[in-house]
Amino acid sequence: MTWSRALKDAARSGLTIERTKLTPLIAIRGSVGVALVIGLCLWRGDPTLAVSSAFGAFSSGIVTFQRSMRPRPVLALAVAGALAVSTFLGYLAAAHLLAFMLLLAGWTFLAGMAWAIGPVAGLAGTQTVAIMLVTVTLPTSVLGALQHAALIFFGGLVQATLIVVFPVRPWGVQRDALADALAAEADYARRLRQDPVAPFDPAPLMDARIASAVTPRQARRRPVQLHGPRGLAERVRPVLASLADPVVGAPLEGPERDRARDLLGAAGTVLDAVAHAVRHARPVRLPPEAMAVLEVPATGPMLHGAARRSAYRLISLLADAVELTDEPVEATRPTTEGERGHLLRPSVPRLVPVALRALHREARWSSHVLRHALRVAAVAVAGYLLGTVLPFGHGYWAPLASVMVMRPDFAQTYSRGVARFIGTLVGVGVAGGLMALAHPGLYVSAALAVVCVALMYLLMRTGFSVTSACVAAYVVFLLGIAGAGWQQTVQERVVLTLVGGLLAMLSYALFPAWETPRLRDGLADWLAANGHYALAVFDLYATPAERRPRQIRDALLDSRAARAAWEESEARAEKEPVRHRGLSRASAKAAGAALATMGRVTMILEVHLPERDADASPGATAFAFELRASLEEATEAVRERGEVNWSELRAVWERWDAEDESRGVALRAADLLVDALDDLAEALSREPAEADGAPGDEAPGTAHDTARGGADGTERNGGG
């Protein structure tokens, strides 16, 4: 992709306005928190404190809208505490330019590294830098700084209190995550009717698993409806795939295929009904037609062999899903020890070592998070110095704009930069026009600021350009409370926002962290994870008496995490003005499809695991032994652009096929597995297509980064 096309796509993405479900009650609750804090400060007669304290309630309200499974009051208090600390430290160093520059650089670097912990932590870190830049411009003493910090924390406390006193749809995030997983499986069942090998994105199941982790306090209050359906959803998906697969399940044509289609359609209907019940906290309502399909016909079973076993298991799982979901929707019960296990979410103090390990993993030169932290720290300092030199006043707006738009990847940084400038232009234009025409007083300006906050909360998920417009107008009205002239405010805001956005974009061009050179490493990680999952399953066929279900489950989760990391990496690479010299985009897509097939085949095989007392399979033993040896060589070949060869594994399968007359599920699945691996080798053997990028479309530093990508650029995104 050329630079011109990449910039055009980024601009289009930043200005896109999405249609999304609005949450007016939550928006009203958050804006009431801001109004209470501003009103209290104005009642005391101090407009400067009103401006300062409003940021605490404002930022604490923003973080509660993020897709985090943590309790919302905890998020509001944690962010408010971080904002208060950053404000106080900023005040202490504000009187000395050098000291403040060192503090700003160090604090911004830590805020940038917070993206290693997660997106919510990264956003919270960004907010702390913003509050440091804004509030230190308001004159005060050390005692006054403590008062400012206390009021900022008070704003978060107000938001947390409102969430507790006026809960809006409790457990809504968890319900939506579980319902989305069930609805995705319902859609998958319907697609399997037409395409027996249709792909399935496991992301909804991964989100549901994250949502099912609870704190000890949540474990005592979780609704009954949220206890069991996720585990059933995990077990339903491979059964659906096994029933539909033409090699392992029902034949491709004939009465058995018709029966399989009917069962898949009924499964989709039942899963949709369960998803609707979970999402809206209602009892399950099932059409009688679907229930009739899920009964064994009067003429007897129409399916045979592995397909019949899959059908019976599907009917049983769907019945359990309906029974578990059709509990009294208001009832709660404690999570049992067996249900909790590794899904017990650690408390906030216990997150400290987890966060430190995440930071340690990203403390490498090849890490895109480390490069982002260095980049944003340098830009914040440069922007602050530049804003101080420029004859506008409010020079902190330049670094503020930079910090708010910068993200660890290219596409988000550039799209947010464009959206920030256009949104600011609209916001200050509208707000400046109202200030010029109406000349609002103190309390009217405060009311208009609260209205802008309410609109931002309401429209937060529609697009960054919309929220930027609301924030820009909010700042104009908020500074109007402190007596700043609207003419100067509008001019400064537009110019300095443009300067800050240009600094952010220029920094990424000069010091990039391209994802493209890391594609082969991500592909190798996914292959290794898929291989370990397949080995865990085939080992059980080789030695049925040594059942290790936990090992298989862990391998499956690792495989999903590697797939999620690859898909995130591939999506980022597609938007970059860089090309990979050893992997074309067509080859990358074909290789990803082959590995997805490999995972699907292994998942189907897991459905038909033998019992403990079953006989060991010599063929499976030999196949697993050769797969283990070939996997290590193939993984290294993918990383180093070597030749991937599965001929030895194919030869082992052919011997197994010649010796095994039963043609069991394991043998047939092994054939599909080798076919998928051959497809992977074929995809990687293709020469990179010239159409993927012109010879001159590499960005500054690309050749250097590409060389590093082969040598030491092996760190993954960790997006799984």
From TrEMBL:
Fetch the Pfam families from UniProt: FUSC_2
Looking at the record, which segments are called Disordered? 683-720
Q: Where would you say this protein principally sits, based on its record?
A: membrane
Query: What sequence ranges are listed for the domain Integral membrane bound transporter?
Result: 384-506
Which topology term describes how it sits in the membrane?
Multi-pass membrane protein
Protein's cellular compartments? Cell membrane
InterPro entries recorded: Memb_transporter_dom (IPR049453)
Keywords assigned: Cell membrane, Membrane, Transmembrane, Transmembrane helix
Parts of the chain that traverse the membrane: 22-43, 74-92, 98-117, 149-168, 373-397, 417-437, 442-460, 466-486, 493-511
Write out the biased-composition intervals (Gly residues): 710-720
Judging by the UniProt lineage, the source's domain of life is Bacteria
Query: What family, per the record?
Result: Belongs to the YccS/YhfK family.
Protein known as: Integral membrane bound transporter domain-containing protein
